[in-house]
Design goal:
Elements: E1 15-19, H1 25-35, E2 40-45, E3 48-53, H2 74-78, H3 85-88, E4 95-97, H4 100-110
Antiparallel strand pairs: 1-3, 2-3, 2-4
Length: about 110
């Protein structure tokens, strides 16, 4: 059975962009600022940092189908239903932060004085 038939289109409800690994206090403050916004999270995967933005694709129909399927972007064409979030149930993040409080706890742990 095609896994897409029972999918609620998780892959069409967000996009993630790789960001520079934070090094300075200013970099960490920028991440805190990102996390102050609704629908934004930050995650680390394989030592790379990403900004995750919960924003639904404008071409997604109410029944979770693509209105531009034949003309969809390459990233959509390359997305494999066999490794999608629905099937794997795992995004593979090493760390994820949904708000400033979670990130502040991470910073306190990471930079605690010995």
């Amino acid at each position: 059975m095609d896994p897409c038939t029972k999918c609620d289109a998780k892959c069409c409800r967000y996009f993630a962009l790789q960001i520079d690994t934070p090094k300075s206090k200013s970099d960490f403050e920028n991440i805190r600022w990102y996390l102050a916004h609704k629908g934004v999270s930050v995650f680390i995967e394989k030592r790379k940092w990403y900004l995750d933005i919960a924003n639904e694709c404008r071409y997604l129909t109410k029944d979770h189908r693509c209105r531009v399927y034949d003309k969809r972007p390459l990233v959509c064409r390359e997305h494999s239903p066999g490794t999608c979030e629905l099937v794997s149930g795992d995004f593979g993040h090493d760390r994820a932060f949904r708000n400033m409080e979670e990130f502040d706890r991470y910073l306190a742990e990471r930079f605690k004085r010995k």
